[in-house]
């Protein structure tokens, strides 16, 4: 474990049984923006990369809208192995994988951590979270003993079964880019810089 890549972990018997592979985080080691999802689904388990299925397309598209490519950001999950039948990871599984997530956040040291959905939001904020109500709210959380800025976001999959979540999702991604100062928001002021030249 170099802070980013977990190999051969066998801490969670049910997940060792259900996974095809461990899905580590993807993206630059010095990204300003780090997204945390719940855990790999079938596509991620097959391809070995987080958010490569339909949820991933929703995320990619919202990133593109604010001038970002997925290769500009770091994307990871609370647990790195696919839970059986896509069930939520258990408290024990979340806790078994916590050290890996903390080490990754520590290593990347992003400007902003964005939690995608209820499981990562509650896991990192350590309280119950009404995600749709709190989406776009900037909070501080201690993660691995370090104070981090965290932005709660609805899970991209929520937009697929509830169209009304689309705007919330896109607005939150735009806010994330602004807070982290990346993509179209790079430079911070949001004003034209043509006058600089
Ligand atoms: N949903 C998640 O929470 N994580 C993934 O990697 C894919 C879908």
Automatic annotation (TrEMBL):
Pfam family, one: UDG
Signal peptide: none
Class of this enzyme: hydrolase
Reactions performed catalytically: Hydrolyzes single-stranded DNA or mismatched double-stranded DNA and polynucleotides, releasing free uracil
Annotated Uracil-DNA glycosylase-like domain residues: 24-178
Any GO BP: DNA repair
Superkingdom of the source species: Archaea
Keyword Iron-sulfur belongs to the record: yes
Key words, A-Z: 4Fe-4S, DNA damage, DNA repair, Hydrolase, Iron, Iron-sulfur, Metal-binding
GO molecular function, one term: uracil DNA N-glycosylase activity
InterPro entries: UDG_Type-4/5, Ura-DNA_glyco_family4, Uracil-DNA_glycosylase-like, Uracil-DNA_glycosylase-like_sf
The keyword Iron belongs to this UniProt entry's keyword annotation: yes
Coiled coil: none
CDD domains documented for this protein: UDG-F4_TTUDGA_SPO1dp_like
EC code(s) of this entry: 3.2.2.27
Family that this chain belongs to: Belongs to the uracil-DNA glycosylase (UDG) superfamily. Type 4 (UDGa) family.
Name of this protein: Type-4 uracil-DNA glycosylase
């Amino acid at each position: 474990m170099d802070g980013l890549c977990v190999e051969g972990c066998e801490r969670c018997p049910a997940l060792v049984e259900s996974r095809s592979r461990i899905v580590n985080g993807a993206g630059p080691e010095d990204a300003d923006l780090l997204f945390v999802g719940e855990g790999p689904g079938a596509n991620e388990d097959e391809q070995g990369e987080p958010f490569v299925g339909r949820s991933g397309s929703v995320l990619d598209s919202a990133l593109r809208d604010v001038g970002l490519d997925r290769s500009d950001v770091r994307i990871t999950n609370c647990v790195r192995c696919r839970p059986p039948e896509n069930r939520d990871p258990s408290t024990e599984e979340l806790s078994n994988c916590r050290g890996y997530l903390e080490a990754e956040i520590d290593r990347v040291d992003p400007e902003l951590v964005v939690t995608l959905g209820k499981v990562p939001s509650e896991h990192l904020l350590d309280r119950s979270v009404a995600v749709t109500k709190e989406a776009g709210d900037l909070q501080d959380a201690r993660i691995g003993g370090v104070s981090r800025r965290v932005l709660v976001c609805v899970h991209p999959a929520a937009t697929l079964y509830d169209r009304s979540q689309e705007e919330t999702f896109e607005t939150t991604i735009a806010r994330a880019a602004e807070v982290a100062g990346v993509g179209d928001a790079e430079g911070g002021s949001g004003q034209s810089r043509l006058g600089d030249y």
